[in-house]
Design a protein that fits this description.
Length: 182
């Protein structure tokens, strides 16, 4: 049983539907389907997890994240939901729609945390970036680079990604810095 295409909710992890809203929707959908999705048998538990998998669009950030999980998390509904919330929910940034992204980025610094923590937080922020802010991309990159504490990574990012001819998005810049730091 499936919903008509217009009623189907999908999750990409890149913006739009938030993870907790998505999981609430999936739970209400299970309730409508009756005992085939009640979780009382192994088959119904597999169906519940499979529905989460198919609701994450192929080639999306969410699908890539799910496919990289261990099998024990991949097929366990509770562990899968916990992993999704851990990856895609950020309580500090819940009110992002009400807050200007530029002022959020300006105030966001690495501080005494490592570059990976800082970069992951920035990636979460950028995934929720409101549409239509492409003209602010250079400013967002500058704020990110200014927030880095490592002079080496700052210099590498500036020389590699902040050239006038660069067409990198802030998301790609952050991912590249993570790769350089590794």
């Amino acid at each position: 049983m499936s919903l008509p295409p217009g009623m189907r909710l999908t999750f990409t992890g890149e913006g739009g539907t938030r993870i907790k809203d998505f999981l609430r929707w999936v739970n209400s959908w299970y309730a409508m389907l009756g005992k085939d999705y009640d979780g009382s048998t192994l088959e119904s538990r597999r169906r519940r997890v499979a529905q989460i998998h198919v609701s994450c669009l192929p080639q999306s950030v969410a699908a890539s994240f799910i496919n990289a999980l261990d099998d024990d998390v991949f097929w366990d509904e509770e562990k899968l939901k916990d992993a999704l919330v851990e990856q895609f929910h950020d309580g500090e940034l819940d009110d992002l729609a009400k807050v200007d992204i530029l002022s959020t980025m300006r105030d966001f610094q690495q501080g005494d945390r490592d570059v990976f923590w800082y970069s992951r937080k920035v990636l979460r922020l950028l995934r929720r970036k409101p549409a239509g802010l492409q003209h602010h991309d250079d400013i967002l990159i500058d704020y990110y680079i200014d927030g880095l504490t490592s002079r080496r990574l700052r210099d590498l990012a500036i020389s590699s990604f902040c050239k006038a001819s660069s067409r990198e998005t802030p998301y790609k810049v952050v991912k590249s810095v993570i790769r350089l730091a590794s």
